[in-house]
Amino acid sequence: MSRKLVSIQTIDQIDPIPGADRIVLAHVLGWKVIISKDMHLAVGDKVAYFETDSLLPETDPRYSQFMPRGVRHMAVTDPDTGETMEVSGHVLRTMKMRGVYSQGLIMPLPELGIDPALPVGAAKHGTRRAA
Fold this sequence. Notes:
Elements: E1 2-10, E2 13-16, E3 23-28, E4 31-36, E5 46-50, E6 55-57, E7 72-77, E8 84-91, E9 95-97, E10 100-102, E11 105-108, H1 109-112, E12 123-129
Antiparallel strand pairs: 1-5, 1-12, 2-3, 3-4, 5-11, 6-8, 7-8, 7-12, 9-10
């Protein structure tokens, strides 16, 4: 199965979460994602949007906070070369916090070293097959 698991998208809307002081609900592509107010993101900002089912690599320190939630080992096929390799990391799932569902992950482009000049929709395609 080939999907855009991570793509550059724009925040369409940000809503408060009742009873929450440090988190808000951002809307991207019709999906709702809980983000920290400390991220200082606003409507119209370009961000990296990670779809549910994206694998966050265990070896990348940017995703270390997710590893205690569970690590999965799987085979991943590079769509460009057809090469299959074993990887491990955390697979994003829909989660519920403060009574609100979060469907994916949003990260600022500079935090990932992504050029903000890239157009909305630019993506890293991924093909994965469970090991």
